[in-house]
Design goal:
Catalytic activity: 3'-dephospho-CoA + ATP = ADP + CoA + H(+)
Enzyme class: transferase
CATH architecture of the largest domain: 3-Layer(aba) Sandwich
Keywords: ATP-binding, Coenzyme A biosynthesis, Cytoplasm, Kinase, Nucleotide-binding, Transferase
Strand order of the largest sheet: 2-3-1-4-5
Pfam families: CoaE
EC number: 2.7.1.24
Largest sheet: 5 strands, parallel
Length: 198
């Protein structure tokens, strides 16, 4: 059994790595999906968010209005800290539950936690290994603009809002360089998997 953290900046190729690991049989636990799940309509987390940020962040159907909330917290460290204080403990508890469930189903499982904010929120957790997807900022900018349709200023703001590549690389046990072809990236993932299975 192994518990792996997979992180990387926006547009660094993290999803490609997670998909390849899943093809090898890893159990992928997606932090972004957990965030959405714990903030679902009617959840205690959503009630706390509404109490902190006001009813304007809740849509008519009872779901979270992410853009409205984003506008309130983006670039405001104290509001973002207030949001994180509500969301992070719930995400931590739910991810721990999903890890335990995966290992109960298969004691020899490789569980991969796909977590963008590892350095910001979870770096001290007892990971067996930390894998960092890495591509230089200019390449990630290009991917955001060409593939995801963001403007250059939007792409730049998203990258700037995350921790630096240096801080991510400093915690890495394994770095997967995603600057080459898809086949290059997959070959690195395959080698990492073979090493794990040994």
């Amino acid at each position: 059994m192994a518990l792996i953290a997979l992180t990387g900046g926006i547009a660094s190729g993290k999803s490609t790595i997670a998909r390849r690991l899943a093809e090898h049989g890893a159990v992928i636990v997606d932090a972004d999906q957990i965030v959405r799940d714990v903030q679902s309509a009617g959840s205690p987390v959503l009630a706390s968010i509404a109490a902190e940020f006001g009813a304007a962040v809740i849509r008519a159907d009872g779901s979270l209005d992410r853009p409205a909330l984003g506008t309130l917290v983006f670039g405001d460290e104290s509001r973002l800290a207030a949001l994180n204080a509500i969301v992070h403990p719930a995400v931590r508890a739910e991810s721990a539950r999903r890890f335990a469930e995966a290992f109960a189903d298969d004691p020899s499982a490789v569980v991969v936690y796909d977590v963008p904010l590892l350095v910001e929120a979870r770096v001290e957790d007892p990971w067996d290994q930390i894998v960092v997807a890495h591509a230089p900022v200019d390449m990630r900018m290009r991917r955001l603009v060409e593939i995801r349709g963001l403007s250059e200023s939007e792409a730049s703001a998203r990258i700037a809002a995350q921790v630096s590549d240096d801080r991510r690389l400093a915690v890495a046990d394994v770095v997967i360089d995603t600057t080459g072809t898809l086949a290059d990236t997959e070959a690195q993932v395959d080698r990492f998997w073979e090493g794990l299975r040994r």
